Amino acid sequence: MADLDLTMKVDNASKHFYAIGISYKTADLATRGKFSLSNEQCNSLLLEAKTLGVREILINTTCNRTEIYAYATQPQELIELLCTHSGGEPAVFEALGYQLKNEAAIHHVFCVGTGLDSQILGDFEIIGQLKQGFYRSKKLGLANGFSERMVNAVIQASKRIKTETKISTGATSVSFASVQYIIQHIEDVSTKNILLFGTGKIGRNTCENLIKHTTNDHIVLINRTHEKAKSVAGKFNVLVKEYGDLPAEIRAADVMIVATGAQLPTVGKDIIHTDKPLLILDLSIPSNVHENVKTLDNVTVVNLDTLSQITNKTLKERRKHLPQAEAILEEVENEFLQWLHDRQYAPTLRALKAKLTAQQSADIKARQRKQIVTEEATKVSDQMIQKITGQLANYLKENPTKADDTLAIFQDVFQLDPSHHE
Questions:
Q1: Cystine design at 206: which of 79, 82, 136, 175 (Cβ 3.0–4.6 Å)?
Q2: Which helix (H) or strand (E) holds 20?
């Protein structure tokens, strides 16, 4: 395959595809929390990007990373958007963030979306978060043909890796790892009082895994929005309490799972009054459990990074299946790159078809004046246009090294302007 030209021309400016972000690989939980984006922040970032002329942009924000995938003139444009709409600082991003361009950026999206770049190898929850980012952008008209084809290809690769390899054996997510941690560290967990504070996705998944893997029927759910808590509780058959009951329920709890979507700590030592051991799992980003809670003698706080490190000790078996997963990723990614390569010819092919169609119309009008045009003649003419453009398309695919020269000849002979047909 010839080198890919991923340049997009917008208002006479050349734009390239970039992936910029910050992740668990270089940034700790506190730093990642500052760069995290709420739903409202994601929407405001996208809306500003739209006013700046960005046409293709996706945001992928999880507990382990915050990334932006977009066409831009320079990656700095995307970094500034991220820092403006999050609590992150440009100097911190410069030190700990990363930026990838064109094919390297596409490869990164595939690795992230298939769980091969996850803190817990084979975490397949990430593909759902990528879909969510795509749907958010699509609603605003910021996810078009390129983004849709790329995300669909990543989904295909993810499905194949999950079904054709054993890389997903065992715990495949932070929520599952959380439950395993509770089971391993709390004796007689089925008899303990468990409090779930917040209805974030990880918290909901943890609740579901708790019910699946324990026989505990002492699970209480509290959320700031009572109706939302009731909606979640209906799916899992857990007891819902009012937000005002939080201190009392903490006092009664043996295990507390914090999974709110707040941007600031929601649990501090001022509301924890317990005389017995309490295990708190903080599954939020930014962290929702205040640092001062760690000063309490009978309270143990475990965060996402701790859970991931503990889980990774059990993932040696999975790594044996990594080459097979990478081979599937490469196959699907190459198919997408081939589509992207062939897509480069589309403007010239459309311009040629438009030129031939215009000539056909002029010819038909001339024949109509002479009363010699027939429906059959029009049909034959249409077929001829399709045949010519089809033959050119096939030739370009089969002879990629000659593509540029061939396109230049056709553009010169037929006086084509592909920019009007992108």
A1: 175
A2: strand 13-23
* 288 neighbors 266 (Cβ within 8 angstroms): yes
Question: Which DSSP state fits 244?
Answer: G
Q: What is the pLDDT at residue 228? A: 76
Structure tokens at 183: 């089971």
Residue 171 tokens, joined: 């715990």
pLDDT at 367: 58
Query: CB–CB of 361/409 below 8 Å?
Result: no
Nearest CA to 67 out of 30, 103, 25 is that of 25
E strands, 186-322, in order? 194-197, 219-222, 239-240, 255-258, 278-282, 299-303
Global pTM reads 0.71
Q: Are strands 98-101 and 13-23 parallel, antiparallel or unpaired?
A: antiparallel
Q: What ranges do the domains of the chain cover?
A: 8-169+318-342, 174-305, 345-421
pLDDT value, residue 368: 60
Other beta carbons less than 10 A from residue 139's beta carbon: 11
Could you confirm whether domain 174-305 is CATH 3.40.50.720? Answer: yes
Under 8 Å between Cβ of 318 and 169: yes
pLDDT of residue 84: 97
Query: 73: exposed, middle or buried (C-beta count within 10 Å: 0-12, 13-18, 19+)?
Result: middle
- How far apart are the C-alpha atoms of 100 and 20, rounded to whole Å? 6
Q: How far apart are CA 259 and CA 415, in angstroms?
A: 61
The per-residue b/e assignment along 357-395, b for 16 or more CB within 10 angstroms, e otherwise, is eeebeeeeeeeeeeeebeeeeeeebeeebeeebeebbee
Average confidence (pLDDT) per 10 residues, the chain, 422 residues? 56 81 93 93 96 94 93 95 96 97 96 91 86 96 93 96 83 72 86 86 77 80 80 75 92 91 87 92 88 92 80 70 94 92 65 64 61 56 67 69 68 60 54
Largest Cα separation within the chain, whole Å, is 101
pLDDT at 1: 47
Q: Hey, which residues are catalytic here?
A: 63
Other C-beta atoms lying within 10 Å of the C-beta of residue 87? 14
Contacts of 314 (CB under 8 A, 6+ apart): 170, 171
